[in-house]
Amino acid sequence: MFDLTEVKYVKRIVVGSNDPAQMSTEAQVEQARALLNRCLTESPKGKIIGLEKSFTILQIGEHQVVLQWLSYHVGFPRKPGWIGDA
Hints:
Helix content: 10-25%
Structural class: alpha+beta
Low-confidence stretches: none
Mean pLDDT: 90
Number of strands: 3
Number of helices: 1
Oligomer: single chain
Radius of gyration: 15 Å
Strand order of the largest sheet: 1-3-2
């Protein structure tokens, strides 16, 4: 069982496009997925403590476009050294 009192650092990772003015490329989405996987597998291992599922509908001319993204909140017992300041 994972105890939330052990969480001392939380990293928020957004996977997908959350800004219609600046669409995420496939490489940026893959980079976010890789960071999430690293957070869940490398030491100190993180645990997903929260998940945001969001979307927005845009009207572009006659077309509707749906932007979807997930925001993962990964909790750690301490801040991993490999995360850096970003």
